């Protein structure tokens, strides 16, 4: 795995609260990185990944603060990071807000689109709510009689 | 009458335990190959594998029904039940290894051997069992409890021994005014618990239904006495379904074995994730998420075998609980197979099916007891 892909996985874990295993388990990690490259371009993607790599290593409040200020609160990167979260959860790239486009210029590929048929199926949202995507990954006859299985929350690194 | 013929009811029960083991042992290789297929490709292969794996589950349940019918106790938690892969299976005069591996030409070649119809050639007709060539520490499927170092000519022959054993023992019992079919009927698993596959599930209550049950297992696997379809002419046997994938063409009514003339089908042999064959948990780095997930899967699979054991021992309705677990396995297996295997560039993970509490092979010990 390239260090660029590693950084992409790292920031995706940070932003989605799902594990590397879960993210790789969708089979879509490479395609989502390629989607980011295609829509916002390699330069902005690299800036986002660099911001992640530059986060303070210590686990705790300082890191969470830094994610907020240097990534989610950043004028350039914030909307891109939020679109990446939505991409992982729904398999859909949502067009960036007008404010972003007005400020940084329109990107031809930045429209709302579903990355691929399996991207819909592998959306993290289904796992997060203990459900399955309509029309796919059927959970079996009678499964509706049992409570949904919601994955345990990952251990919060914040000591606060 | 052969040296290997079944003579006692206890022996018949042990054979049926091994029949359940054999039917179950085909499921992990088929499931793994099925879920190794990448999304969007190999839809024909996906369909073929899915139907076959569901029918193997039917066969497992049918074997449990026969065992229950003669007063036996199905036990999928017995330490020797879950196979260790690669496991050996008879294929004529030799035996071969069944592996957990990705969908590939090699996997298909093994699957064809599993389901191959095989009659003894003339020079072996009436002769005894065949000497095992695989080491004694591998799981030998379809083996004879009294002759662990030998194997049947084919799986068909293994089942014929069971069928003949049932007929022999029931005839003996009949002469004494009794029957071997003394099992509690409420332990039978009935059709409402089986769907989405070919064949039907029916209760086994007497020798007639027992022999029908065995015929169903054999015919769904290898066809009806050289015919590519099963007895009802509805369903293509597993062997010929796999052959369709290898030959890239469907069979149609009237076709001769080995010569499908139906529509072409597309197989993308590269359209599968590259998993490491017969992966063991010990090969996955300690502390990795993949190892944790593979271990959790095995534990869950062990619980699943416990649940099936309870279902087969008088609580059939528990099978309803088993259904969502099987679909949960699909999701977990997909995740395991899509995760790269650390330290093995280009290779992915896989379920290992190392079930907690199962031994590699209890056979060598028991074999020495028999000889002693």
UniProtKB/TrEMBL annotation, chain A:
Name by which UniProt lists this protein: Membrane bound FAD containing D-sorbitol dehydrogenase
Question: Organism, per UniProt?
Answer: Rhizobium giardinii
Which branch of life, at top level?
Answer: Bacteria
TrEMBL record, chain B:
The Iminophenyl-pyruvate dimer synthase domain covers which part of the protein?
A: 16-246
**Protein name (Swiss-Prot/TrEMBL):** Iminophenyl-pyruvate dimer synthase domain-containing protein
Q: Spans of biased composition, class Polar residues? A: 358-372
Q: Which InterPro entries match?
A: Ferritin-like, Ferritin-like_SF, VioB/RebD_dom
Pfam families given in the database record: Ferritin-like
Q: What organism does the record attribute this protein to?
A: Rhizobium giardinii
Region (Disordered), start-end ranges? 345-372
In terms of superkingdom, the source organism counts as Bacteria
User: Organism classification, top ranks?
Assistant: Bacteria, Pseudomonadati, Pseudomonadota, Alphaproteobacteria, Hyphomicrobiales
């Amino acid at each position: 795995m390239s260090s660029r892909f590693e950084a992409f996985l790292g920031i995706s874990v940070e932003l989605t609260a799902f594990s590397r295993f879960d993210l790789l388990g969708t089979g879509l990690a490479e395609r989502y990185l390629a989607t980011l490259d295609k829509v916002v371009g390699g330069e902005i993607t690299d800036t986002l990944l660099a911001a992640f790599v530059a986060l303070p290593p210590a686990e705790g409040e300082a890191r969470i603060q830094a994610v907020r200020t240097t990534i989610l609160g950043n004028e350039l990167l914030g909307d891109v990071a939020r679109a990446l979260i939505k991409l992982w959860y729904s398999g859909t790239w949502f067009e960036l807000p007008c404010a972003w486009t007005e400020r940084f210029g329109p990107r031809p590929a930045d429209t709302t689109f579903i990355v691929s048929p399996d991207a819909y199926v592998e959306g993290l949202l289904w796992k997060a709510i203990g459900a399955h995507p309509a029309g796919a990954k059927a959970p079996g006859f009678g499964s509706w009689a049992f409570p949904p299985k919601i994955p345990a929350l990952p251990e919060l690194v914040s000591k606060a | 009458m052969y040296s290997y013929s079944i003579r006692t009811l206890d022996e018949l029960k042990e054979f049926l335990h091994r029949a359940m083991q054999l039917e179950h042992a085909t499921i992990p290789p088929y499931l793994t190959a099925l879920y190794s297929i990448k999304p969007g490709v190999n839809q024909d292969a996906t369909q073929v594998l899915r139907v076959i794996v569901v029918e193997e589950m039917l066969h497992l349940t049918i074997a449990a029904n026969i065992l229950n019918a003669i007063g036996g106790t199905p036990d999928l938690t017995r330490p020797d039940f879950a196979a260790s892969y690669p496991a050996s299976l008879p294929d004529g005069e030799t035996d071969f290894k069944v592996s957990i591996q990705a969908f590939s030409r090699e996997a298909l070649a093994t699957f064809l051997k599993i389901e191959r119809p095989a009659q003894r050639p003339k020079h072996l007709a009436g002769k005894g069992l065949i000497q095992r060539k695989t080491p004694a520490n591998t799981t030998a499927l379809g083996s004879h409890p009294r002759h662990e170092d030998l194997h049947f000519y084919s799986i068909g022959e293994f089942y014929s021994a069971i069928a003949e054993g049932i007929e022999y023992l029931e005839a003996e019992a009949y002469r004494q005014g009794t029957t071997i079919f003394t099992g509690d009927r409420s332990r039978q698993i009935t059709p409402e618990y089986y769907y989405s596959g070919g064949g039907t599930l029916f209760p086994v209550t007497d020798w007639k239904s027992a022999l029908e049950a065995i015929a169903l297992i054999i015919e769904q696997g290898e066809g009806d006495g050289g015919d590519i379809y099963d007895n009802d002419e509805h369903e293509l046997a597993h062997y010929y379904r796999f052959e369709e994938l290898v030959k890239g063409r469907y069979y149609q009514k009237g076709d001769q074995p080995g010569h499908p003339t139906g529509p072409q089908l597309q197989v993308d042999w590269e359209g599968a994730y590259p998993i490491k064959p017969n992966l063991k948990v010990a090969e996955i780095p300690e502390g990795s998420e993949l190892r944790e997930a593979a271990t959790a899967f095995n534990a869950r699979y062990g619980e699943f075998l416990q649940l099936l054991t309870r279902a087969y021992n008088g609580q059939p309705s528990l099978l309803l609980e088993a259904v969502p677990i099987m679909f949960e396995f699909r999701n977990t297996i997909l995740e395991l197979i899509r995760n790269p295997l650390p330290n093995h560039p280009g290779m992915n993970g896989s379920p290992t099916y190392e079930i907690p509490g199962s031994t590699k092979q209890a056979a060598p010990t028991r074999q020495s007891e028999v000889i002693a």
